[in-house]
Structures are given as structure tokens and as C-alpha cells.
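May I ask you for just one protein sequence along with its C-alpha cells in two labelled lines?

_____
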Amino acid sequence: MTAVPEVSATINDLLAQQQVLMHSITRALDNFKKLGRNNYTAAKVRARIASSKEVWTQCVRVHSALLQVIPEAKRSTFDYFQSELFDQAEDIHLTTLDYMAEYLEALAPTPPPLTANQAPGAACSHGPPASSFSLAHLPPINIPPFSGKYEDWETFRDRFTSLIIKNPELSAFARMHFLSSSLAGRALESIRSIPVTADNFELAWKALESRYENKRRLVEMHVSALYNLPSVSRESASELSELRDKANRAITSLKNLDRSESDILSDMLMYSVTQRLDPVTRKAWKLKGGDDARIPTFSELDRFLDSRARALEELHPANVDKQARAQKATSATASGISSILCPLCKASHFLHKCQVFLKKNPSQRLEAVKKANRCVNCLSDKHAVQLCQSKYSCRTCRKRHHSMLHVDSDTSSTKDTFTAKDTPAAETTSVATASIHDAAPITTLFLSAKVSSMPPVLLATARVRVGFPAESPNGRTRVVRALLDQGSEMTFITERLRQGLRLRRVRMPVSISAIGGVDAGTCRYAAEIQISPIGQTSLAFKTTASVMTSLTKYTPSPVTSPVQWSHVADLALADPDPTNSDPIDILIGADLYGDLLLDGIRKGSRGQPLAQNTVL
């Protein structure tokens, strides 16, 4: 049973109040649409926007109260924090405001920009100086509101700069007033916390530029416009003119971003390649750039794709006898999810649902399972019965075989066949299956099993220096113990390490599942890190690491002391004492594994570990 946290009456009241407010926020857009477009008026839209903002203000207040009364250590026990309901409500609220703002603009169009004859001071050369302006005498300058859409940023920026910032008749306070009045939706939310004062105009404008003046994003947007030009279906002067105008508009915008013709061709090549990547790889490429607005080159993309391809190759080693490998090794890695294929009829379904399989008697089914090298307990092709993690056994005799394989007439032979009844279950130490949004699943599995009949082994560990990928203000780095796992497509770090280095985290939801597809939770965040060998600051490897509370419970098996390994006595080990039980703070996956390896393997006698040459 799951323990229910003790919740005080005050917390219950706040959560109930927040639930009502969030329900109102969620229903606001649907209720607005129910009015019908024919019933929309500027007054009604303004009233709905004001009502939505008032509800959101109350929601923020209740959220702040919850943060004060619930300690951070206990927040994970509340579904409100665990499911991030406040963040979801904020997204819905902003989407609602954007939708309403678009209709308000259509219902109450803004006047055209000022002409030269209407400019302040044009009618009279004795107008007051800029310092004498007050809010009551601001000139009637109207600019279409900017709601936070990247495609509208450049137009808004140029208009606001020409009409407001470069207008010598306006004071700093007047400029700040115009700025706050010319924003809506997400753009307005980005500066809402900045008070409307003369001293804050520069701060607010720089905040907008910092968020939306992203050259990399703008270039990608204009290149996308080139790739999505409308097709001319017939010989038509109007369609040809429209095609030409849109193409020239996109190219002109790119040239305004200081992109030469050769740069534009390179940008189009980059866009063409990245749009053909799978969603997971494309997201990894975008995260690699981080907050850097610099336009990457094709050679950088080429190196990234080459590195990722080599890493993925590590996840598909040559096919070997899986059952023999499971009996001889305590630690095994596996990767890849293949399409479901029945070994009997070759159709796309599981074995236990195969009609050919169901028509057989138990003895024939058992023979078919053995012939297909399947686990006789769960029918999986990923492991042998000795390492089966399933908690289920035969419903008839409770022995470690599938109920469909139970043979009543041959008890003795069945008993000899299934030898894993008293075998201790393996302990899964680290398993990760990444499925981001609707992307195809990526399996990254790591298994450490304790079986009494198997010899002790050591996993590949090292001491590495981890820090921020850029020069951080405090220059924080930390030497931690790492586990190298080529069976993991991703690199993972502990939350303890992230907090110790004060790394900035970004949202990157990743589903974590155990061997056999058992759900083990969700990793919500990732962080950019840089890994370096100890004592070699010039050599560094950057990657995006998912953040987890705990990575593995791996504890080295009892083995002889490293000083007795004569075959590595003259080597500098990456982990000076691989037999100690220090915690693992980083699991280095296949995204970096291939970059760390060097030529050279040194083997000892039977029962002794081998040494792999690496940059560490």
C-alpha cells in the first residue's frame, strides 16, 4: 500500500482552491469559443481577457502560498507538484490569451503608423522638450501588439525602434509606457515583473531582445519559409508573382541577418538534413546548441552525426549466443527494440498470442520455446530463465516456467528442465528507455545480476572531472566516480551532482523503464555538462545528460586487491581503486563512449579483469 502523506487543513484548503482556479483557467478558452465568432465584439473579448488575467493572478497567489507551507523535501509526495500542474495551467493560460488577443486585433484594428505630418512636433516647432512629456500628453502612436511569435518579432522590433526608441520627443518613461502597451501574451509575461518606470525601459527592452533576438532561430524560420513556398499548379501570373514575392521576402530577411548567398545555401542544406532526422536526434542536435545564438556550420552538424552514428553502432554488437553469454557473465548490456516478430509464424504478434503456438500441446510448446532461445518463464527473447525478472511463475505448480508450458504427465522431466527456481533474482541497477514525446523508443539497458554460481566481476569505472560546458562565473568543477555503459544511449548524472555544480537544467522528459518494459518512472530534466580527464583540462567532451535522483546500486563484487594484478601494475588506472564502493554520480553512455576509447587492451590470467586503454 502507498503511504498517504499527512496534509493539514490549510494545505487541503489551498489545494482545493487551486483546483477550482485551474479548472476555470482550463475552461476559459472553451467557454470563449462557445460564444461563436459571430457574437464576438471588442468589448466582450477585452472582458474575457481581463477575467482570465484576474483568475491567473489568484492562481499565482495560491501557488506562492503552497510553496511557503509545503517544505521542498515533501513536495514530491503531492500530485500537484509531481505532475507540475501549475506549469500546465500557465501554458493553457498563455495560449488562451494569445487566442483572444488575435481576435481582439481583428475586431479593433490599430490605426496606421504616423506619417511625417503627424509626427510629434511637426505642426509646431516650439513643442515641449522630451523631459516635459507626461502620460496625459503622449502622442497617439499605435503599434500592432507583439504576442511573442518569432515570425512577428523583426517587424515589431523595426517599427518600435523607428517610432519609439529613435523618437527624440519621447522620454524614457513614455517609451516604457509604449512598450508595455504594445505587448501581449507571452511577450508581455516576459516583462510583467518589471515595473513601468523610466529607469526600467532599457532593462525591459534588453529582456525582450535577449529572448527573441535569436539569430539562429530567425535564420531557421526564414529558411523554413523558403522550403514551404506554395507550389504553382498552373500557368498563372498571380501565383507566379506570389511565389516570387515570398521567396524574395525570405531571402531579403536572411540578408538582413548578414547571411551571404553562400551562407544561405549552407543554411538550406543544414535545414534539409536536420528535417530528415528522427525526432530524438533532432532534439539532441538542438540541445547541443543550447542558448548559443551562433549559426552552426555544416561541418559541425557532420561531426555531430558521425559521433552519434558511431555511438549507435556500439548499441548493436555482433550477434552472439545470448543464453551462453548470460550464464558466463554477471553483467550484461543490451540495446535496441526490434519490431515484434513471432518465431513460429513470422507474423507481427507476441508468441503467446500465436494461433500456431496455441494449437500445440504443452510439450510441443516447450520444445518450440527452447528452439527459439526464449525464456521459458516469460517467453522473452532478451534473457535466459536464470535471469528472468518476472514476478510471475506457473499458476499450476508455482515453478519457474510459463503456465502454458506446464506438463502434468511429465513432472520429473519438467523439474529437471527448469533449474532457476531457487536462483536468486537479479538486481537491476540501471535501466533507461528514452521515449521523448512521440519519438520512436530508444532502449538503453544495463543489468547487474547477483547469481551465486557466477564468478565476481568488475564494471568499467573511472574518476572524471565534471563541470559546466562554458566558462562559468565560479569555475565550479568536481571529480566524481563514473560508470561507463555502452548499452546506454544517453549519459545520466545525479541530482546531487547537478546541484553541487549549480548546473542550469532544461525540460527534457524521458521515460525510464526496467528490463522487460516495466515502468520505472520519468526523468524530467537534463543539463549540459563537460567531462574531462583528471589533470587534462585541454581535453573535454560536452554532452546533454539526463538528471536522476539515483543512477545505480552497483557495488563491486569481492575480488582480489588491485595490487595483485601484475598485468596492470605499470598502468595508471582511470579508477585507482575499482573495488571500492564509492557512489556513482555519472553514467557515461554511448553518446560519449566511442570518443573515450583508444587502441589497446591488456588481459590478465583467467579470473582477472582486462584493461581497456581510454583517454581517461
Notes: DSSP finds 19 helices and twelve strands in the chain. The chain has a mean pLDDT of 74. Residues 156 and 392 are 63 Å apart (CA to CA).
